[in-house]
Amino acid sequence: MITFYGLKSCDTCKKATKWLKDSGLEFQTIDVRADGVEQSRIEAWVDAVGWETVLNRRSTTWRGLEDGDKEGIDAAKAVSLLVKHPTLIKRPVFEKGNEVFVGFSDAVKSALT
Q1: Contact at 8 Å (CB) between 101 and 108?
Q2: C-beta contacts of 65-69 below 8 A and 24+ residues apart
Q3: Is 13 a known active-site residue?
């Protein structure tokens, strides 16, 4: 079973949902804004793939942060920001077993099938 974290309004997440369905893969969807994400889960993602991969610095939310929030980022500060602002999570995030995949590239698709 794949756990898929994303946003209902995200175009990439919509494409990923369609691909998962079309591929016949069993999955559950968690909306990071509506359902939230526990800090321990975000910490596990950061441990697995690095905070640089999980934190979306190209998002509208990132651009709206105070300059002080954007400076001196390390893993702990990134986790804190991601918990406070879940729309900063780079999407989609997939969990398959003990593995974590971020984004929707061909490599991620291949790893999920």
Answers
A1: yes
A2: none
A3: no
- pTM (2 decimals)? 0.90
Catalytic residue among 4, 5, 10, 37: 10
In order of 6, 39, 64, the CA distances from 3 in angstroms are 10, 16, 29
Overall residue count recorded for the chain in this entry: 113
| Distance separating alpha carbons of residues 94 and 54, to the nearest angstrom | 11
- Please report the domains of the chain, with CATH numbers, ordered by start residue: 2-112 (3.40.30.10)
Contact 2, 16 (CB under 8 A): no
pLDDT one-digit tens code per residue, 2-30: 999 999 989 999 999 999 999 999 999 99
